[in-house]
Amino acid sequence: MFTAVNYTLLSLILFLVIYPLIYVISSSFSAPAAVTSGRVWLYPVDITLVGYQTALKHSLIVPSFFNAILITVVGTVINVVLTVMAAYPLARKTFFGRGLFTAFFTFTMLFNGGLIPTFLVVRQLGLYNTYYALWLPGAISVYNMIVTRTFFRSTIPEELYEAGELDGASDISFLLRVAIPLSAPIIAVLMMFYAVGHWNNYFNAMVYLKDPAKYPLQNVLREILIANRMDDDRMMQDVDVMLRKQGLADLLRYSLIVISTAPMMLVYPFVQKHFVKGVMIGAIKG
Q1: Does any domain span residue 54?
Q2: What is the pLDDT of residues 111-121, one digit of tens each?
């Protein structure tokens, strides 16, 4: 009885989660009339690519897509490197003052300077309107650092550290040659957490970037869907005509949602096998 009820509830939850995704994807490939009339339920109706063609006509969509990739890749590399460099010494029992440094890190989880002071610091450092303003202020997530520290502490035995010291390995050499190769699960977790954060983050770009040519994809989509602003006037006129004649508004919305979410959904299966293991070991043990 328990198994039957459990599978029934899980199947219902799965349906509730996956159906909106299927609906959005199907709607993005359906004809505008089919979308507006409500004929799309599970699969595309009158398959067409007009939604994607209309979205890609915008002069900033393609550049912003590559901007988002650049911000995500470079930002994730910075985040992972600094998080590992902070977590590794805090996991070593021989590191003097690790409790004090851990307290300093933890303090930042409870208190921060606020948006306006942070903005003033970013501007005074000359980072305003540069991608460094998106990378450096949040270069380390303390939560992720604590999870990584716990992973190092619970997965790599102290005897392995001692063996490395006997072989003459320095801390950096041990980290690069032993600790990191053994830490693929937690590194996959860090990459996924940080990459998703960078890809979905539009607020920091909205605050610290003033040049539309530097906008990531999420900000351009926000301008199109929420603010209804397009810099290409002729494009806007063409879209207005198409919207009035074919009811393209919903179709365009669904197409933009697919464009913005597809990269993360395609990457996730490749790190999934490490993801669960890394989260469980890093969060529970230690």
Answers
A1: no
A2: 888 889 999 99
Would residue 91 count as lying in a domain?
yes
Half-sphere exposure of 102 (CA within 13 A, CB side): 17
Amino acid at 255: S
CA distance 120 to 174: 40
Who's near 175: CB < 8 A, 6+ residues apart? 84, 88
The residues near 94 (Cβ < 8 Å, ≥ 6 apart) are none
- Indicate which CATH number applies to the domain containing 240: 1.10.3720.10
Q: Which domain holds residue 192?
A: 59-284
pLDDT digits (tens, 9 = 90+) for 21-58: 888 888 888 887 777 777 888 888 888 888 788 777 77
Q: How many domains does the chain divide into?
A: 1
Maximum CA extent, the chain: 77
What's the burial of 60, exposed, middle or buried (CB within 10 Å: 0-12/13-18/19+)?
buried
Residue 241 CA to residue 7 CA, distance in Å, equals: 49
